[in-house]
Amino acid sequence: MGECGVGQPLNQWFRDYLTSRSFRVKVGDALSETAEVKSLCNVLQHCSAYMFADDLCTLRTGTDLADTCRLVQRDIDAVVKWSHDNGIILNSDKTNLLIIHSLYLRPTGSPPFMYTHSVSCLRNDFVCCNCMPIKVVVCVTYLGVKVDNNFYGHIM
Length: 156
Hints:
Number of helices: 4
Mean pLDDT: 80
Strand order of the largest sheet: 1-4
Structural class: alpha+beta
Number of strands: 10
Radius of gyration: 16 Å
Low-confidence stretches: none
Shape: globular
């Protein structure tokens, strides 16, 4: 988050709050076993991960939008594979792409399409891929905090 302009002590607060978390899921009256998700961070090669319970936020900085999106896509694919291997189903409807950029340097053109590919799509080298693209948004709410594409690190 520091790379995105979030300064101390807020950055440290987020780090402390989100470190060493596990999650459980409740459906009706049934509560799942506790699941540790630390190993998920190990599959990310290009992005930073921020997790709470069963929520994952990945961040990546870069100066070339197409190259940055390509690297983020690799990590998304790794998360899909990890989730499948660990019996977790991703909700691609809740997956969003938010591009935060410098106030002085607006991106040229649209970002390339990015996908939460299915495991079968990944294993078949994207042959007959009919996966839906990730929705590009201008604002997201993460853990009750709204972040938009005009983000400015005003809390120091």
